[in-house]
Amino acid sequence: MWFVSMKRIFFVIFSVILAELCVTGTTYADPMELIAEFSPPVPGAYVQGGTMTDKGLVMAYFMPKSSTDEMDKASADNPIMRLEIIPAQGATDVQDDLAEESGSSLTQGRSEVVAYDSLSHANDMCYVPEEEEIYVLPMDAPQVIVLDEDTLQIERKIEVSHTYHAIGYDDSQGCFVAVYASGKGKDKRLICDVLERDLKRVITSFPVDTNLTYQGLAVHDSRVFYSCWKKEEGKREHRTQYDDEIPINDNAIFIYDLEGNLLDAVLIHMPEGYNVFEIETVTFYGDKMIAMFNENCADENNTLMTGVYAVSIPQL
What we know:
Blueprint: H1 5-22, E1 33-38, E2 46-53, E3 56-62, H2 73-76, E4 78-87, H3 93-102, E5 106-117, E6 124-128, E7 133-137, E8 143-148, E9 154-159, E10 166-170, E11 175-182, E12 189-195, E13 202-208, E14 217-220, E15 223-229, E16 251-257, E17 262-268, E18 274-285, E19 288-297, E20 304-312
Antiparallel strand pairs: 1-20, 2-3, 3-4, 4-5, 6-7, 7-8, 8-9, 10-11, 11-12, 12-13, 14-15, 15-16, 16-17, 18-19, 19-20
């Protein structure tokens, strides 16, 4: 039974109160396992949306203007790559050695750039297994771009009511979850919509209690995992607990149920040896949560890398 308007109002108020009660004191995530770390497929490109499909981890890259001025149009489109994730045990000797060095139970298999599509920012994406399609948010229009899972080519575009920046799909409920920004300046709020399969009718909405950068989300077990990054200038402070303040360059994953109740907030530290460690989105593989990052290694070249990590799914 869908929620009526009075219940919707109740859940909005209740979720804000619950956020204040539940988040303080949440501890940091378990240590992450490195699956893969590599240079972007095109120099200057930043990984944005990513999702696990039946064929592997699909990631879309954003091409900023500075990296496309001297490239032809095909290269200026978004590179979309597929990365195979496999258990470390039974992998090749080289892969097994890398996994053993990083302490990971998963490792990287075959990877390739499959397509170049015009996806604008490609800020987030999700996989719909029943349709074998990937839904992508360009974030420059109230629109969803649908890709074929096999070819990663554009199949169609769907007009929606808001310019969403994060999207996930709950296959157990057959619904989408998407987040958009409402208002400007001090009045800006992030709103999460639970949407029917056609992306037209809103089942319920609730506020996302964060003013951090727009990142992606994924849905697992009818729980919404919304990822955020704190970008600020200044000195980082290592902490062992979340006290309503995310340290500079650290990351958080806020976990909600589909009714808008904030269940937990998981903090992810930037590892030593990096000066930027920006989470972009999360997805799921077996009993692991897969997180994708744009990284700057703290070396003399300030090298931009894509990092793919696994962490145990938080038990609530």
